[in-house]
Amino acid sequence: MYKSKKPYHYGTGRRKSSVARVHLFPNGTGSITINGGTVTITGGLGAEGDGNRIVVGPDMMTSIPGLYAAGDCTGGLLQVAKAVYEGAMAGSEAAKALRKGGFYGG
Question: For residue 106, what pLDDT is reported?
Answer without folding.
Answer: 44
